[in-house]
């Protein structure tokens, strides 16, 4: 004879599982898109990843996602007048709104992220070199694995119109096992909002 779980107990259990899954997803996979690195097989093995925003106007970016103030697909935008022209050869700006044209957004911080998943490779560590340049409308900060690596304006770039030029960065260190996330925080004062990244992440396998 089959036993039936009381309806209230079953519903409560299902709801608890749903909340647990939602909490786990929220903490583990904030950046929606992730590229996976290969396991180390030999000392000095290298892998290079393009960390740039590459979406064409109106198309979703293949690597970057908006993660705040709410999760959204990062969509390529036609550069708003004044956005870096003619300084950038790519000018692949993104914004978390649909359509090819940049739109005005309320004042606030808009965060975009891209992640590389680094596997465990016993006997090796991954050393990284991360270089690039970025822009944001109006000001912003760039983080790698939660550490501030670049900000605009800065001591060398005093203008607070960070969409009119690129801010250059370079940093090195040891990659984490798991997600390694590059994040751009675009601090918008109102009006058009968006971010641009032209970056490269190089991983080098090193024996421990």
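Sequence proposed for the structure above (208 residues):
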């Amino acid at each position: 004879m089959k036993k039936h779980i009381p309806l209230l107990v079953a519903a409560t259990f299902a709801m608890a599982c749903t909340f647990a899954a939602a909490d786990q997803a929220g903490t583990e996979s904030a950046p929606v898109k992730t590229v996976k690195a290969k396991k180390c097989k030999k000392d000095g093995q290298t892998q290079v990843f393009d960390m740039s925003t590459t979406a064409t106007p109106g198309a979703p970016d293949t690597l970057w996602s908006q993660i705040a103030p709410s999760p959204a697909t990062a969509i390529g935008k036609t550069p708003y007048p004044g956005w870096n022209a003619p300084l950038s050869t790519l000018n692949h700006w993104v914004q978390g709104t649909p359509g090819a044209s940049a739109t005005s957004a309320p004042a606030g911080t808009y965060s975009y992220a891209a992640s590389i998943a680094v596997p465990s490779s016993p006997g090796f560590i991954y050393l990284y070199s991360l270089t690039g340049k970025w822009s944001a409308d109006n000001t912003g900060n760039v983080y790698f694995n939660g550490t501030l690596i670049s900000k605009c304006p800065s001591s060398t770039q005093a203008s607070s119109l960070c969409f009119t030029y690129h801010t250059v960065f370079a940093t090195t260190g040891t990659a984490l096992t798991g997600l390694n996330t590059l994040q751009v925080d675009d601090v918008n004062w109102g009006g058009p909002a968006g971010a641009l990244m032209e970056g490269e992440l190089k991983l080098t396998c090193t024996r421990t």
